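hey m, so remember when u said the tokens were messed up on ur end? i reran from scratch. heres the input so u can diff it against urs
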Amino acid sequence: MLLACLFNLSGCDYQKKPPIKVGILHSLTGTMAISETALVDASLMAIEELNKRGGVLGRKLHPIVVDGASNWDQFALEAEDLITQHQVSVIFGCWTSACRKAIKPVIEKYNHILFYPLQYEGLEASPNIVYTGAAPNQQIIPSVHWALENIGKNIYLVGSDYVFPRTANMIIKDLLKNRNISVLGETYLPLGSHDVAELIDDIRLKNPNLIINTINGDSNVAFFKHLPKDLKIKVMSYSIAETEVLSIGTDLLQGHYAAWNYFQSINTSENLEFVENFKIKFGQHRVIDDPMEAAYTGVHLWAQTAETAGSHLPTLVRAALGYQSMKAPHGVVSIDKKSQHLWKTVRIGEIMADGQFEVVWSSGTSVRPAPFPSTYSRQEWLKRLEAIESP
């Protein structure tokens, strides 16, 4: 019977024990579906890997996938339903800061736990959220300094009209002010808008050599399609990765840049295995990007933490979070006990003709997360953030 349990789970307690339900909450429809659907695939692959190894705490994981539909109110409703009706032990999900902020009160109300896989503007640290994407000092801040030295100092800021782009640009303008640099222009598009005519006219008028891009979703298609090719403009993006390059087209994106922690082209044994397994499961045409890797890593980090805690209950898992490290496809990651963000390596990549990124700069080692940049106190940052959120 023991051998049957080791080599064939048939008849073992693994199959008899009730599964642990976990929630996956992303936009499968709407403007953000272009980016978020792939994160569901990455999360499900991690869950399948865990189940093949015997699950978590000797129990199979049962994923419940729900659609936030690119609507922040819908995200909040679905999060509450996952917790109260489906009784999931954890939620993996969200992309935009607007959706994260929408479900944050729900997660905290029920003392639950969310693994959030996106780089973001920082200025937040919730005891109920594990931030597996980059903090500002692990993406925005180093990439701005690199771009100023390697691209140019005539800068135009463009973003979607919600909290991440506006807060990111607030941080960026602080950096520029300290270097006596003023932006040539700053424009925001409604999330999901393809009406870029006025923006493109203003860019042509101002003629920057560097655009810092915080547009999210399929608005990027229209932006890059109409970006003047006769001008010598380079774009540094924070929400354009391999998945978006595949959707938008390399003919529009080649030669532009993005800052992330992970690129599919990273040549490590862990990443090569990750990429191979993903392509075997989903098709050789598929690509992998930073948020997908962060989503995948988040599932494995949660499972490792639950095993450490000896429980899948959110309160007990949270108590064990600060002791976790693992080798992820992007490199070694560790959960910072104080902020519940990850130590991560910073990378800047140039988009190549094959749709992959060539790394042009790397921090080389993991960088400690600083969700509240040192230029202001935490209280001052929160006051400035409040002014953005409640103009």
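this time it looks ok to me. Residues 1-11 have pLDDT under 50 and may be disordered. if urs says something different then somethings off w ur setup not the seq
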